[in-house]
């Protein structure tokens, strides 16, 4: 885990390092995470005045625009949450699929595991806000899907099953003493939502969406009593985003190449609906 965290830290942008690791940056951070900043930014990105950003964003991120339902967008968020004409999903009952287009890393779950998500460190019980639920995944695996600006920002359910519960956790700005958090006196707890699914093949599965530092918004559809594999669960509006999947111990046999890359701290490029493992 320490090796993976070190590699992740090395990939952090200079802007993030500035915000979290300098005195001036931390002053800006406190302003940036204020709710009204996010609200104003969201209003602008959902307005027609943001349309000029679309072609610039496409060019900078080298996004292939073939295969989408429309090309004329009313706002930047309209573009960012664009829909494909079709998704290819592995519907075999013994296959676990990727919920999205992303870079995937697999982590073992143990008592002392710490997961770095959107520049913030979490233990599992803190991530879920439920210590009892977290204990049920001891010895299991945490699948972390990291979406970048170039990715498709809609996502689906990873399996069939009955929905046991859903939970939303609002983001917060924390102030802690330097000795308690690597000399960084502030950090951000990201907004997140998760669904607990009881599956015949996979047991109790957690599928969580994590929002971004600034305006990243999670737009999940109203939850029904049953989840259907491959059915669209929701989408992200602009902002970096991550999806976390928790699988109980002894339930899954992950693809060998995914495990090998994760072991050396590398991510695997996956697509929505792609098989990433099978029933163990």
Low-confidence stretches: 1-12, 176-185
In angstroms, what is the radius of gyration?
Answer: 19 Å
Strand order of the largest sheet: 13-7-10-11-15-5-2-17
Strand content: 25-35%
Number of domains: 1
| Residues in helix, % | 25-40%
Mean pLDDT: 83
Count of separate DSSP helical elements: 9
Structural class: alpha+beta
The general outline is globular
Terminal residue distance: 24 Å
Please outline the major beta sheet.
8 strands, antiparallel
SS elements, strand count: 18
Keywords:
disordered N terminus, globular, 18 strands, alpha+beta, 280 residues
Describe the SSE topology:
Blueprint: H1 2-11, H2 14-21, H3 23-32, H4 35-45, H5 53-61, H6 76-80, E1 95-97, E2 102-108, E3 115-117, E4 120-122, H7 124-128, H8 131-135, E5 141-147, E6 154-156, E7 161-169, E8 172-175, E9 186-189, E10 192-199, E11 203-210, E12 218-220, E13 226-227, E14 232-236, E15 241-247, E16 252-254, H9 256-263, E17 268-270, E18 275-279
């Amino acid at each position: 885990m320490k090796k993976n965290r070190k590699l992740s830290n090395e990939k952090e942008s200079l802007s993030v390092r500035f915000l979290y690791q300098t005195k001036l940056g931390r002053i800006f951070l406190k302003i940036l995470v204020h709710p009204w900043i996010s609200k104003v930014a969201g209003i602008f990105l959902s307005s027609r005045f943001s349309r000029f950003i679309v072609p610039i964003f496409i060019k900078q991120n080298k996004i292939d625009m073939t295969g989408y339902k429309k090309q004329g967008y009313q706002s930047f968020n309209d573009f960012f949450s664009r829909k494909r004409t079709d998704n290819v999903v592995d519907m075999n009952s013994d296959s676990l699929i990727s919920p999205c287009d992303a870079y995937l890393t697999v982590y073992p779950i143990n008592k002392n595991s710490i997961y770095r998500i959107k520049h913030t460190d979490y233990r599992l019980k803190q991530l879920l806000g439920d210590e009892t639920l977290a204990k049920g995944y001891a010895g299991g695996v945490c699948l972390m899907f990291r979406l970048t600006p170039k990715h498709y920002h809609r996502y689906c359910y990873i399996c069939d099953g009955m929905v046991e519960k859903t939970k939303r956790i609002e983001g917060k700005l924390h102030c802690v003493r330097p000795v308690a958090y690597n000399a960084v006196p502030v950090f951000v707890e990201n907004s997140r939502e998760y669904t607990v699914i009881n599956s015949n093949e996979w047991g109790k599965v957690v599928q969580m969406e994590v929002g971004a530092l600034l305006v990243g918004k999670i737009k999940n559809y109203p939850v029904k009593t049953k989840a259907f594999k491959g059915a669209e669960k929701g989408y992200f509006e602009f902002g970096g985003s991550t999806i976390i999947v928790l699988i109980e111990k002894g339930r899954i046999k992950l693809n060998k190449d995914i495990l090998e890359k994760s072991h050396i701290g590398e991510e695997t490029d996956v697509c929505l609906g792609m098989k990433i493992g099978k029933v163990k």
